[in-house]
Amino acid sequence: MRLFVTGSRGQLGRALERAAAAGGHEFVGRDLPELDITDAAAARGAVAEARPDAVINCAAYTAVDAAEADEARALAVNGTAVEYLAAAADSAGARLVQISTDFVFDGAAGRPYREDDPPHPLSAYGRTKLAGEGAAVAARRHLIVRTAWLFGDGANFVRAIRRQLDAGARTLRVVADQRGCPTYAEDLAGAVIALLAAGTEGTVHAVNAGSASWFELAAEIVRLLGAAAEVVPITTAEAARPAARPPFSVLDTSRLRAIAGADLPPWPQALARFLAADG
Ligand SMILES: NC(=O)c1ccc[n+]([C@@H]2O[C@H](COP(=O)([O-])OP(=O)(O)OC[C@H]3O[C@@H](n4cnc5c(N)ncnc54)[C@H](OP(=O)(O)O)[C@@H]3O)[C@@H](O)[C@H]2O)c1
Fold first, then answer.
1. d(C-alpha 228, C-alpha 192), whole Å
2. With a 6 A CB cut-off, is 9 part of the ligand 1 pocket?
3. Which of 59, 64, 157, 263 has its CB 3.0 to 4.6 Å from that of 6, i.e. a possible disulfide?
4. How far apart are the first and last CA of the chain?
5. Angle formed at CA 82 by CA 80 and CA 87, multiple of 5 degrees
């Protein structure tokens, strides 16, 4: 397959480049500044020039807290620009893959979310990503992949914890009342390509197996690194972040399992691989 990837220097974009090479697929990657997906003409021109089989949109406004005070800009990137990519993909006869998020859910379900559960975002980021899903559906052939709590080659929670440990932190105060699915960008990239190869359309949840709180994730990082730090659980209220987050956004991956034949590896195993590769 020939893949056109936006946001190609982000965490997932970089992982997709490696996964494409490993699978013998052609990869054309674009990111800021050479392609701003909020520029409709530029997006259309770049896709037309690449003549891809699939457009994979990894570009996003991902600063969840900043989006609260900047929703118009977040919507331009996460919502409106997806309309441009959907039209560009249609013109090029390509499938559109839109990467979305567990933050489209409110966390009140009390059980893992299935693809057809009604979304109800709590934050500006979640609202704009849901708008992006709505825009992606307009593409004749589309695949929406919802993922969560990504770690890879970029800014993420795992690197932030490691940085604090490297700086000598002995106490880490981490939120214990939000539960989700930590996911390694490399594993997600493999899943996206497998879904494309299988001709999958519609919406699919793709996260590493298992779930954790941020507190449990931090404790596992400390354990794997053999660091002498204490992880202290705090509440979401104590963390006092601008954006509301779902208390429980575990994603049900039955559909991915049925298509790919297996779940992605358990997150602690994926985390260990990431820490070893990222040392
Ligand atoms: N990270 C997570 O925990 C998480 C969780 C669930 C879902 N997701 C979704 O997964 C996807 C990939 O996330 P990620 O962690 O790989 O994101 P990332 O590392 O933040 O990468 C996003 C890339 O998009 C670029 N970008 C931003 N605005 C753009 C624009 N207008 N035009 C073109 N490129 C633009 C960014 O460039 P700059 O760095 O220069 O801004 C960055 O290189 C996103 O759709 C995100 O919403 C992420």
1. 37
2. yes
3. 59
4. 32
5. 105
Q: Which residues contact 172 (CB under 8 A, 6 or more apart)?
A: 161, 164, 165, 218, 222, 229, 230, 231, 232
Segment 111-163, tens digit of pLDDT: 999 999 999 999 999 999 999 999 999 999 999 999 999 999 999 999 999 99
Is 80 near ligand 1, meaning CB less than 6 Å away?
no
CA distances from 130 to 94, 100, 121 (A): 22, 8, 8
pTM assigned to the model: 0.98
Residue 57 Cα to ligand 1 midpoint, Å, equals 9
Q: How far is the CA of 31 from the centre of ligand 1 (A)?
A: 10
pLDDT in tens, 156-205: 999 999 999 999 999 999 999 999 999 999 999 999 999 999 999 999 99
Using the mean position of ligand 1's atoms as its centre, give its distance from the Cα of residue 213 in Å. Answer: 22
CA distance 13 to 239: 30
Which residues, in sequence order, are bridge partners of residue 202?
143
Q: Is the CB of 145 within 6 Å of ligand 1?
A: no
| 128 within ligand 1 shell (Cβ under 6 A) | no
